[in-house]
């Protein structure tokens, strides 16, 4: 197996052992020049190392630390932008410090896969677990597992059970709503995400906090499903009354919202201002370009990886930390018409 066929993953001593058809202790004995090794076995192990394009220094590091140099990542709802971007950021950060990532994905329709995922990752010989689990139901299931491994969960709220790290979702939402308030909007609706998602809860609370701080009333939030289709139906059918702005909980629903409004002849931002959340790569090309909240996933990946490595090494690092998001102002927001 070549580096190209493995993609980004860097093999561990356990991968070499599996490829050679021997135990990891046999690999260790070969690398350390143990005399009681059959020559055919020695050659098979050395051939596996060469075929996997893996340096002996990396294997030696794993042997010296008695670690696999691999972190297991359990990803809930990987098709969504946030979880997917967080996984890619973790992969990049892990490569930079000589760790590999093994990922197990869970779909929204199969929550019980979390049990299978934990077992599969642990049996691969990982040094720690990172859980990208945006739904409360997933973490409820995870609490029933006991692995004995250092574990970090990507969520904005601290948790007594695990290390936690996240982008500050509530602060991002307050940035979005305060931007609208500063423009002069006094009636601001919220198109929320599914409230089983921690991020959706935090963003809704940020909307409520910003309105309360400004002494403004809150209309009931509308709970969507993250999709552009839902935003489109909302924009096409909702009776806005005196509402002059909408804070959408993600950019995809904001995109559908703008489309639905346009079909009714409601102009953005002339009639309704719209703010999203995430700053998708295409958000600057929406019509109009979307004002949104940018999450720094690269910084989140580096932070989460450092926290989990500190835990692996037994250091007393932070139990919880967050990355501040930023407001990106584009053309989808303006002052309300007088």
From TrEMBL:
<dbReference type="GO" id="GO:0000976">
    <property type="term" value="F:transcription cis-regulatory region binding"/>
</dbReference>
<dbReference type="InterPro" id="IPR010982">
    <property type="entry name" value="Lambda_DNA-bd_dom_sf"/>
</dbReference>
<feature type="domain" description="HTH lacI-type">
    <location>
        <begin position="11"/>
        <end position="65"/>
    </location>
</feature>
<keyword id="KW-0804">Transcription</keyword>
<dbReference type="InterPro" id="IPR000843">
    <property type="entry name" value="HTH_LacI"/>
</dbReference>
<keyword id="KW-0805">Transcription regulation</keyword>
<dbReference type="Pfam" id="PF00356">
    <property type="entry name" value="LacI"/>
</dbReference>
<dbReference type="InterPro" id="IPR028082">
    <property type="entry name" value="Peripla_BP_I"/>
</dbReference>
<dbReference type="InterPro" id="IPR046335">
    <property type="entry name" value="LacI/GalR-like_sensor"/>
</dbReference>
<keyword id="KW-0238">DNA-binding</keyword>
<dbReference type="GO" id="GO:0003700">
    <property type="term" value="F:DNA-binding transcription factor activity"/>
</dbReference>
<protein>
    <submittedName>
        <fullName>Lactose operon repressor</fullName>
    </submittedName>
</protein>
<dbReference type="Pfam" id="PF13377">
    <property type="entry name" value="Peripla_BP_3"/>
</dbReference>
